[in-house]
Amino acid sequence: MTPSQNAIRPTAKQLSYLRALAQRAGQTFTYPTTSAQASREIQRLKAAQPTSRVERQLERKEVADAIARGPEDAARIRPGEIAGYASSATWKERS
Known about the structure:
Elements: H1 3-6, H2 12-25, H3 35-47, H4 53-68, E1 82-83, E2 90-91
């Protein structure tokens, strides 16, 4: 491969394919800066075992829950803070 080929940016088609393969495999990838890097990532992800749809959904939920439980989650309503359901729900304790 010549130096000029290494300097070619990845195509939109390569990037789209990378995103699809990463989602199928349940993996992430480093954003390629060259077309050659994109080709290597495509080969790596093509060789990876695909995860099931359920596994991907569970993992996304776990990540979202982990983010929500972080220190920035002070505004989340916890189950012990409200009484009642739907439009009749009220705060158990008032400040």
